[in-house]
TrEMBL record:
Species of origin: Arthrobacter cheniae
Location of this chain's protein in the cell: Cell membrane
Gene Ontology cellular component annotations, sorted alphabetically: plasma membrane
Ranges for domain Major facilitator superfamily (MFS) profile: 15-411
Name used for this protein in its record: MFS transporter
Primary location class: membrane
Pfam families the record matches: MFS_1 (PF07690)
Record membrane topology: Multi-pass membrane protein
Amino acid sequence: MKRQGHTLALGLRENLAQFTLLVAVNALVGGTLGQERTVLPLLATDVFHLNLYTSSLTYILAFGLAKAAANYAAGTLSDRYGRKPVLVAGWLIALPVPVLLIYGPSWGWIVAANLVLGISQGLTWSTTVVMKMDLVGPDRRGAAMGLNEAAGYLGLAGTALATGYIAATYGLRPGPFLLGAAYIALGLGLSALFVRETRSHAHLEAKSQTRHGLGNLSTREVFTLTSFRDKSLSAVSQAGLVNNLNDGLAWGLFPVLFSAAGLSLGQIGILAAVYPAVWGAGQLATGALSDRWGRKGLIVSGMLTQAVALGIVATGSTFNLWLLAMILLGAGTAMVYPTLLAAIGDVAHPAWRARSVGIYRLWRDGGFAVGAVVSGLVADAFGVPAAVAVVAALTAASGGVVALRMRANDHINS
């Protein structure tokens, strides 16, 4: 099959230039989210003087709901119109976010900014995932997802650290959000001018695939299969939800917990950066390892490691102990994150894989919203450590569901 004078081929080496470009684009997607990780929880308490955790976490609730819906839409739209238009649209939607964050006179403006950011992130991040799956084919899917997620979360971590420094030096606004504005401009330019469409690669792979017998399932059938009917897909979907439930907790409440314990803004920035940095860098190894060792063991081990880390956060009170917890939390998440995505790609037929990825990511990023509500209510009633302990228990239970329900060898047959 040819396109614009080039023969289409599946594989990382065969598509290295486009794959590398998409890795860079996803680093910018992650950095756009990272502009908020250190600063927004402190903006809620120090600038807008929000006392209830359930109130201050409304921005995570808005972000999670919007991103979950956008993930779902991204899969359907990219199958219908192509991947690149969805990616470019996601960047265009992000343009007003830094303006809202910088000039917002009330907390409602910040919530609105996160609603818009959630839509943008759902479209851009989901599309880069699908495009990389399209390019590499089945053989190195775990490695591809590891590279994709590593780029995104290293971008997030570096930006969280940088914005912590900027905020400590120049104040909470506007400095940290100017960095996000630069990311959005660069991401839009690269996506519009240099990224190429990859849907034809998925069509090429689909010709040789017969997973689940048929490749022409309706969106409703794909939703039911991904969410409930297929044991592996449904186990992965619930694990994704719980993973982002605890990430929402870390985003919204950890900086507040650390600040209340007397940590400096610089120390909070370090802790906010270490977790996604270990998460991001670790995925460079764990994605590829899941191709060799299988997906299930890494997912179960990762969820349990996260639960242990959250237990340490709940009982700790010092910078060094919390630093250890952030390293463990990042390591556990690195074991899980690219492996869950690769597991979806293992089972889903290329003809409906983009929709299945979108549905998985709908459940996964719905975890932000669930986490905001659950952790906010528990924190208001019993304190932040109690909220962290509850989420630790939920994370351990999720790992148990994967151990009992997920098939162990889907990747072998993909």
